[in-house]
Amino acid sequence: MNKELTWKGKLLTHAVLLAFSLLMFYPVLWWIGASFKTTPELALPTLFPKKWMWENYTLGWNALPKYTFTYFYLNSLKLNLTTTVLHVISASLVAFGFARLTFPLKNFWFSVLLLTLMLPAQVTLIPQYSMFYSFNWINTYLPFIVPSAMGGAFFIFLLVQFIRGIPRELDESAKMDGCTWFGIYWRIVLPLTKPALITVMIFSFIWGWDEYFGPLIYLNTMDKYTLPLAVRMFMDTQSAVAWGQLLAMALLSVLPPVIIFFLAQKHFVEGIATTGLKG
């Protein structure tokens, strides 16, 4: 009797979870279907079109003057791969210093690092823009690349918590074998922080890929535009917006971060779940 109740309870639980999953996934299904519709058909309460407009993707890909979406894809890939690599390298180095080394005012500087997480981006926008303008960095990728070489407060904090969970006995053993601090960082800490590093990579890439406000402020010419700006420009190039083509390009623009997340999902979950708990 208990087994039957348990089986029925599991079936009911899975049915409820499936229903909620379909409810959450419905907007995505509508988005996919709408990317194949004509503009008049978007007003109809149907999930999928009567006639599939596959040309929405080809026309949308070549809709902007002089540039195809291949160009903007490459811009986004080059910029985000660069910033992601710099985030991982710099954040891991700074985090190793905070977690393992002893230096003057260490706790004070770590507190300052955490305080920067509480500052809204709007507070620093005007000073940053003035500084980058004086450096002649406007309409270049330097306002994104150079700050990423500083690590990023959130990524540093995440890695510090993870590294603190690695037993210090490993450091002492490495020192006895003649290993330097950099050797400990490179040969011991980095391999053991792989899940956290992958978490940093995923966050950095997705946040950079989806960023719209920063490129809107610092990039002025179309040859520098990333995908979010290109999708927005798509609306400005026509008096009557071809919404099917716009939705098709928006759908293609979100595929890379979704693919990366699912490929690295195991390491991502492990990195989040074990941060500050290993040891």
TrEMBL record:
<feature type="transmembrane region" description="Helical">
    <location>
        <begin position="184"/>
        <end position="209"/>
    </location>
</feature>
<keyword id="KW-1133">Transmembrane helix</keyword>
<dbReference type="InterPro" id="IPR000515">
    <property type="entry name" value="MetI-like"/>
</dbReference>
<comment type="similarity">
    <text>Belongs to the binding-protein-dependent transport system permease family.</text>
</comment>
<dbReference type="InterPro" id="IPR035906">
    <property type="entry name" value="MetI-like_sf"/>
</dbReference>
<feature type="domain" description="ABC transmembrane type-1">
    <location>
        <begin position="73"/>
        <end position="264"/>
    </location>
</feature>
<keyword id="KW-0812">Transmembrane</keyword>
<keyword id="KW-0472">Membrane</keyword>
<dbReference type="GO" id="GO:0005886">
    <property type="term" value="C:plasma membrane"/>
</dbReference>
<protein>
    <submittedName>
        <fullName>Carbohydrate ABC transporter permease</fullName>
    </submittedName>
</protein>
<feature type="transmembrane region" description="Helical">
    <location>
        <begin position="12"/>
        <end position="32"/>
    </location>
</feature>
<dbReference type="GO" id="GO:0055085">
    <property type="term" value="P:transmembrane transport"/>
</dbReference>
<feature type="transmembrane region" description="Helical">
    <location>
        <begin position="108"/>
        <end position="129"/>
    </location>
</feature>
<keyword id="KW-1003">Cell membrane</keyword>
<dbReference type="Pfam" id="PF00528">
    <property type="entry name" value="BPD_transp_1"/>
</dbReference>
<feature type="transmembrane region" description="Helical">
    <location>
        <begin position="242"/>
        <end position="264"/>
    </location>
</feature>
<feature type="transmembrane region" description="Helical">
    <location>
        <begin position="81"/>
        <end position="101"/>
    </location>
</feature>
<feature type="transmembrane region" description="Helical">
    <location>
        <begin position="141"/>
        <end position="163"/>
    </location>
</feature>
<keyword id="KW-0813">Transport</keyword>
